[in-house]
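Teaching assistant's notes for section 4

Start the section by putting this record on the projector. Ask students to predict, before seeing the second block, whether Ribosomal RNA small subunit methyltransferase G will look compact or extended. Collect guesses on the board.
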Amino acid sequence: MVDDTADRALGESEQVRAFLGDAYERVAGFGDLLREQGELRGLIGPREVGRLWERHLLNSAAVVPYLPARGTLVDVGSGAGLPGIVVAMMRPELDVLLIEPMERRTTWLSEVVERFGLGNVQVKRGRAEEYHGAFEADVLTARAVANLAKLARLSMPLLRHGGEMVILKGRNVAQEIDPARKVLRAYKASEPEILSGTTVAGVEPTTILRVRRG
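Reveal the predicted structure now:
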């Protein structure tokens, strides 16, 4: 059994409560549900249970300061709901579309939406490219979905002109930029920015890449 004592203590700390503010109870409840069912339902690996707050919930929350308060956000490849569910809880006036191709994951996402009364969320089963032309979002998020070139090709058509991809990436994201330039040029995209998403002291910042569709 994974020792999750330290991770639970982090989640219950005053600094995390202060960072999440009004969203704390919902995010903590979502974390408890993931801790209870995530591994069993194939949503997270067994070792992730012991670092849910540090590696997943706060990692997802780190993107929120770079998102608008209102408008439409699409989360591509939502999986367990990271970052989409966390974003929806922290930005209740943002309309959030969760796109996920796997049925068992969309079933989970729908259960989470109902359980926490997330009236600002719609779950859409399918791949990103199946929704090209169906809507135009103001902002798009993704986490651990694909390299920048592939993600831009799949995701840019989901954004309105002037809309932004604000995606969670690894430390080596700079290496993905040059191979993606051809795709980015096709959408007249801005120069990608690498940003640091910080949450609370002692938790490693999240690397975020932001690029605007022309």
